[in-house]
Design brief:
The protein is 36% helix and 21% strand. By secondary structure, it is of the alpha/beta class. The site of adenosine-5'-triphosphate (ATP) has 17 residues, from strand 8, helix 7 and helix 8. This is Hydroxymethylpyrimidine/phosphomethylpyrimidine kinase.
């Protein structure tokens, strides 16, 4: 059985964070484990509060999971603060994790900070060099590089700059760019690959970023290469968005089940 670990925050609303990750792992038939960095009081409309887990207890959870169950791939999401980022980097190095997907979650869709700017440098310096894939959205890519990203050309430039901090692959997600297609750029230090799908005009989009990175992680755990995992994760997300539901009064949720059994066998 393939195993994937998510190191992330809890979304009480069930749409993003570690709940999205575990649902995605299950739908792709990968055994999921979770290390919680922060508990958010959150729903489809926003983040009402948060309670960060002390870094030493994040470390203890990591020892429990990695010292016993292990993981074929690991994903990080909301890491809450600089101390947790640093602790996670130390532990992942200690356990020799090499299929690591870092989703640099800075801000929730509602605008609430999930990782303060004081921690961004630590993320770049300590976690990015360990990553196989880093998956910033446009805002995160802008915050990391200081570039203003208005086009696919700018996305490529941002990907190249982020690659210099040490990850083997960078995916810059273009979900927030205008246009008829949703385009993501993958850069491996040499080649640029472009992944495109028709832009869906729907509002059931809570947790798209988490789900995309979780699907990449699950597919890497199963042995797919990075470009294949990114392409298939995008298709997973497209189907989950189409099947999404208007849960709550804000951004609705994705639907993780039914369609995938036909194309993802054990
Ligand atoms: N309207 C859309 N139609 C189709 N695909 C989309 C749409 N919006 C985003 N995507 C795709 O979803 C994935 C996540 O991209 P996005 O830029 O939304 O990430 P994110 O901003 O991290 O997510 P979140 O908004 O949940 O934080 C990417 O593959 C992107 O291309
Ligand atoms: C806990 C958590 N992680 C990540 C996101 C990003 O969407 C969110 N809204 N909440």
């Amino acid at each position: 059985m393939y195993k994937a670990l998510t190191i992330a925050g809890s979304d009480s609303g069930g749409g993003a964070g570690l709940q999205a990750d575990l649902k995605t792992f299950a739908a792709l038939k990968v055994y999921g484990t979770s290390v919680i960095t922060s508990v958010t009081a959150q729903n489809t409309r926003g983040v009402q509060g948060r309670y960060d887990i002390p870094a030493h207890f994040v470390a203890q959870q990591l020892d429990s999971v990695l010292g016993d169950i292990g993981a074929d791939a690991v994903k990080t999401g909301m890491l809450a603060n600089a101390e947790i980022v640093s602790t996670v980097a130390t532990k992942l190095k200690e356990y020799g994790i090499n299929r690591l997907v870092v989703d640099p979650v800075f801000v929730a869709k509602s605008g609430h900070f999930l990782l303060g700017p004081d921690a961004w440098e630590v993320l770049k310096e300590e976690l990015f060099p360990l990553a196989l894939v880093v998956t910033p959205n446009l805002d995160e890519a802008e915050a990391l590089t200081g570039l203003s990203i208005q086009s696919e050309k700018d996305m490529v430039e941002a990907a190249q700059r982020i690659w210099d901090w040490g990850p083997k692959f960078v995916v810059v997600k273009g979900g927030h760019l205008a246009g008829e297609e949703a385009v993501d750029i993958l850069f491996d230090g040499k080649e640029v690959l472009r992944f495109s799908s028709p832009r869906l005009l729907i509002s059931n989009t809570h947790g798209t970023g988490c789900t995309f990175a979780a699907a990449i992680t699950a597919l890497l755990a199963k042995g797919w290469g990075v470009p294949e995992a990114v392409g298939r994760a995008k298709e997973y997300l497209r189907q989950a968005m189409i099947a999404g539901r208007p849960v709550g009064k804000g951004y609705g949720c994705l639907h993780h089940l039914a369609p995938y059994y036909s194309w993802e066998d054990d």
